[in-house]
Amino acid sequence: MKNFLSWIRDIAIAVVIAAVILAFFKPIIVQQESMQPNFYSGDYVITSRQSYRLFGQPERGDVIVFKSGLYDENGKQKNLIKRIVGLPGDTVEIKAGDVYINGELLQEEYVAEQGLSGEMEAVTVPEGRLFVMGDNRRVSQDSRSAAVGTIDMESIVGKVVIRLYPFSEIKVF
Fold first, then answer.
1. How far apart are the C-alpha atoms of 125 and 93, rounded to whole Å?
2. Which distant-in-sequence residues (6+ apart) come within 8 Å of 23 by Cβ?
């Protein structure tokens, strides 16, 4: 009986630890090509659910996962992984494939290919919203399209904090 109670105690402790971890972190498997060359389909990332509640506001350059207004073939709402480009109050414009924030060229060393962002007239990001783009601009469905648009900060699932898999590509963000 003593051995049985020990097992129950150990299982209960494991469940509590798992619940605490999942309250702060959410594992995500990347399922798209829009963030290449930085994230590939099949990459396993951990997002911090509490980053913006406890440790400050979203910043330009952060990679986030958010609930989009898009749905998969099964009718399930898609989570997308994108990079924050524009913050509330910023004016975002794309000219000759380059992104300008408040009239200044955005230096984007993380994009797959420079100068492929298309064209877009100036848009001012509303309060409480973010302008996001994928790093692989050729295939990314992001804030440039009406289907995604600027995203509500409340839709953020988490900030990407670490890539765990593939093991040869582990990286902390």
1. 11
2. 49, 50
Query: Is residue 82 annotated as a catalytic residue, yes or no?
Result: yes
- Which positions ≥6 away from 99 have C-beta within 8 Å? 85, 92, 93, 105, 106, 108, 117, 133
What pLDDT is recorded for position 82? 96
Taking a C-beta distance cutoff of 8 angstroms, is the pair 33, 39 a contact? no
Count CB atoms within 10 A of the CB of residue 94: 20
| Both structure tokens of 7 | 């097992």
CB within 8 Å of 107: residues ≥ 6 apart: none
Alpha-carbon span 164 to 129, nearest angstrom: 29
Catalytic residue, from 34, 48, 51, 117: name it.
Answer: 34
Is the per-residue pLDDT at 144 higher than 80? yes
Say how far apart CA 167 and CA 144 lie, in whole Å: 33
DSSP 3-state assignment of 109? coil
- How much is the average pLDDT of 76-103? 94
Going along 44-102, which residue ranges are E strands?
44-48, 63-71, 77-86, 91-95, 98-101
Tokens 């004016």, residue? 91
Task: Please give the Cα distance from 154 to 97 (Å, whole number).
Answer: 29
Catalytic residue (one of 48, 68, 82, 140):
82
